[in-house]
Amino acid sequence: MRTHICTLMLLVTKVACGQSFPADINKDSLSRFPVVMRSELDEAGKKAYDVIAGGPGKTVLPTGPAAIGVYSPQVYERLHTMNNYLRKEGVLGERLTELAILVASREVDEQYTWSAHETAALKAGIAPSVIDVVKYDRDLSGLEEKEAAIIHFGRQLFQDKKMPTDLFAKTVELFGRRGVVELTVLMGDYQLNGLLLKVADQHLPSDRKALLPPR
Fold first, then answer.
1. Which of 22, 50, 91, 197 is deepest in the core (most CB within 10 A)?
2. What is the pTM of this model?
3. HEC states along the chain?
4. Could you give all domains of the chain from N- to C-terminal order, each with its CATH number?
């Protein structure tokens, strides 16, 4: 019994905020990856770090995919640049981009990403009722056409792992072929971020609510 208790104590680390984390979770990053300081990188890495951080003199947040990605700064710089383009200059526009991010986050069940982007989607103009359709896997009846198409597209891609001819044609009709490519890449980007977060066992900061319920 004593050995069992000791084992449990080794597996769980208590932190000041009262949350309990596995013993391999770093207290600053809240993941398995300790925070990378810019000063630890070579010159090429520092340049990439500055891009990821948003400019010279800025710091990458200690939690999240960017904090993990700076372990390979040249790789994540390219992902960051692509993500920025899709979110700020892509043909979907901010509102539908945020919806697509939520769809991908729900399909890979990624709490960290969802908890950040639910708020962003609301600010961008996605109605709470639409967010709930994604969050709770509800029927698409009554949704605006483009919103329904994005949710249907994501569900088909992630769950059935194929794209029927009619859905492809409808998505092209609504967004163009460029839009279909950008929608697919955007969802794939957030699937990739989800994989990084899962490998790192990323936990939420104490000031962020877990907004994504289990299925």
1. 197
2. 0.90
3. CHHHHHHHHHHEEECCCCCEEECCCCCCCCCCCCCCCHHHCCHHHHHHHHHHHCCCCCCCCCCCHHHHHCCCHHHHHHHHHHHHHHHHCCCCHHHHHHHHHHHHHHHCCCHHHHHHHHHHHHHHCCCHHHHHHHHCCCCCCCCCHHHHHHHHHHHHHHHHCCCCHHHHHHHHHHHHHHHHHHHHHHHHHHHHHHHHHHHHCCCCCCCCCCCCCCC
4. 11-86 (no CATH), 93-200 (1.20.1290.10)
